[in-house]
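Hi support team,

I submitted a single chain yesterday and got back a structure, but I'm not sure I'm reading the token output correctly. Could someone confirm the output below corresponds to the sequence I sent? I've pasted both exactly as they appear in my results page.

Thanks,
R.
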Amino acid sequence: MKTLFLSSLAFVLMLITNPVNAQETINTQNNYVVLTKKVDQLKPIILTARSLKEEDGENFGDYQAIICGQDITLLTDKEKMKDFLTEAKEAGVKLIACGFSMKKFGVDAGEIPAEFEVVENGILYNFQLQKKGYYSLGL
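Hi R., thanks for writing in. Yes, this is the structure output for that exact sequence:
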């Protein structure tokens, strides 16, 4: 009888505490990362961020756009980048430049807009974000 009582008590406690623990571990934020080799893709990337922000509501988390490849040289074109920078800021898009691509194509970090964060390797950075649960898209 004593064993039955203790077993029942343990079972009830398990039912009560388990859902609470499960809720604490669920990440309710939707985080996104897009890796692109084309600067002109920033326009649809930013438009997508705006749509997802509206759709996700309070569950919208972080949204990052990584530029890699030869188009990294276009980041130094202030006129071309002006609208992208304004729109990205308004949409809450964090802009990332691939340091590996910058070295390969001779782009000095001082020549790109201050709004860009430079990471050592954009592809590796993308994988690291995916391991953290980010939804990822490569263009």
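A quick pointer for reading it: The two ends are 65 Å apart (CA to CA). Let us know if anything else looks off.

Best,
Support desk
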